[in-house]
């Protein structure tokens, strides 16, 4: 009985935290999700000790997956991505995300036509399309460099550029990020 209570409490606490994040209460920039076009999230793929970058393109109803091991494996959608899509759909509905129309009228966007009910809290099971991005820099299968790749993907996308596989040198990225961290430490000291 106590374990059930603790599990329910933990789930409720997580739900509140995620709802508050989507409403902009915990985002460092102070912007709620309905005021931005894209949200970047790094996701740990559980037992594999591997990270991928997920980009929610809210106006297009797309979840883009940037996986630095995607060319090395032939398998279905990772469980974490499937769970994330269901969780995102649920929390956007629970937080009345689609009711917030001061910047975007979600019901008029092509990506959401036929997917939102009369009341926007009634949403379709297939709200988001998951798109695995191909032809991006890939790490060696036996390396643990996924963090460098995720950081590089975010940096490239934040500069509104396309992520391409040509010209990516992981050792140069390691050195560059180490230099940036050292410089940051020196300026803060």
TrEMBL record:
<keyword id="KW-0378">Hydrolase</keyword>
<dbReference type="GO" id="GO:0008234">
    <property type="term" value="F:cysteine-type peptidase activity"/>
</dbReference>
<dbReference type="InterPro" id="IPR038765">
    <property type="entry name" value="Papain-like_cys_pep_sf"/>
</dbReference>
<dbReference type="GO" id="GO:0006508">
    <property type="term" value="P:proteolysis"/>
</dbReference>
<keyword id="KW-0645">Protease</keyword>
<feature type="domain" description="Ubiquitin-like protease family profile">
    <location>
        <begin position="1"/>
        <end position="157"/>
    </location>
</feature>
<dbReference type="Pfam" id="PF02902">
    <property type="entry name" value="Peptidase_C48"/>
</dbReference>
<comment type="similarity">
    <text>Belongs to the peptidase C48 family.</text>
</comment>
<dbReference type="InterPro" id="IPR003653">
    <property type="entry name" value="Peptidase_C48_C"/>
</dbReference>
<protein>
    <recommendedName>
        <fullName>Ubiquitin-like protease family profile domain-containing protein</fullName>
    </recommendedName>
</protein>
């Amino acid at each position: 009985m106590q374990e059930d209570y603790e599990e329910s409490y933990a789930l409720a606490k997580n739900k509140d935290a995620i709802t508050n994040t989507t409403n902009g209460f915990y985002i460092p920039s102070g912007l709620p999700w309905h005021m931005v076009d894209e949200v970047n999230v790094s996701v740990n793929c559980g037992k594999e000790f591997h990270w991928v970058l997920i980009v929610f393109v809210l106006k297009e109803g797309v979840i883009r997956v940037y996986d630095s091991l995607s060319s090395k494996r032939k398998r279905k959608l990772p469980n974490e991505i499937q769970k994330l899509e269901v969780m995102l759909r649920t929390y956007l509905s629970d937080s009345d995300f689609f009711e917030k129309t001061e910047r975007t009228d979600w019901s008029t966007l092509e990506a959401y036509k036929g997917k939102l009910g009369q009341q926007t809290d009634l949403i379709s099971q297939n709200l988001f399309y998951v798109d695995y991005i191909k032809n991006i820099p890939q790490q060696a299968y036996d390396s643990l460099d996924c963090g460098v790749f995720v950081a590089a993907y975010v940096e490239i996308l934040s500069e509104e550029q396309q992520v391409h596989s040509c010209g990516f040198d992981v050792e140069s990225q390691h050195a560059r990020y180490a230099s940036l961290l050292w410089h940051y430490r020196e300026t803060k000291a």
